[in-house]
């Protein structure tokens, strides 16, 4: 599986699109907002630059893309007004893999820019947008050209499926039944990718530049712990059932593995220190319920079903990977069964995604 070609969220604005099913990711951005606000404020107040270049890596498409940008610009604008500074000009780079739905982003750009101008009022500097397709496990920008880098719920995706997963049969990710060599293979790939990411960004950021990165992770030292692998283990269940029923080929299921790694805070810290380009300002862990609509009010009957919500969220993320490997014709049935499994588990236990957020400075 060529990850660069098939890894992207569901595009468009339909019922299974990421744009319609990304409330959970928005809640994570909101939850980590204090860390992001602190970092952009410290960056601005250190030099009061006349221009600020911001890169959002793994921007996807939909409301979250512009939500993050608007929050950053509002923070800078508030600070500069308090101290009587002229507004900087902004250059915003929106990056994701080539399969991302950039068309939807740019079709809605003018609406967003008009809304932003009204929110910030007169005196705010112009904001220029550029789409940057490509993998962030390589150079994307000129040397010393960025001031601030943000990435949320993207960096846990690996550049490729790790080598040596042949013994991970019937599992689609690290699981409680995965052999030790599988866990090691995933960790080695994460180390390689994350170190390369840090190296590339260190070349692109100016001295004093900052990054805030949020990944799905875990608190446990065990990479196959329930807190980070359970949602994939549950997705493997309908696939296994459909294998028994002859709807999926055994060879395909045994060779399918999710290109993802959910690190612990200690593992993130270790790689940052080992690579050596950045200092850690903050490293924090948060949790968010699988069901993003849990505390929402005025919901339709459908959204009161936690299994429905989680299954739609996971489908918006995982569908392109599954479709490329097993074909589109099985997807409705896979996620129908997955919804039933999730509903059953949510009725019996509380399940949360663990988020690892690190704020970094290039000295």
UniProtKB/TrEMBL annotation:
Q: Does the keyword tRNA processing apply?
A: no
State the superkingdom.
Answer: Eukaryota
Q: What is the taxonomic lineage of the source species?
A: Eukaryota, Viridiplantae, Streptophyta, Embryophyta, Tracheophyta
For this entry, list what GO says about its biological process.
methylation
The molecule here is called S-adenosyl-L-methionine:benzoic acid/salicylic acid carboxyl methyltransferase 3
Q: Which Pfam families does the record match to this protein?
A: Methyltransf_7
Q: Which GO terms describe its molecular function?
A: metal ion binding; S-adenosylmethionine-dependent methyltransferase activity
The protein's matches in InterPro entries, at most eight in alphabetical order, are given as:
MeTrfase_7, MeTrfase_capping, SAM-dependent_MTases_sf
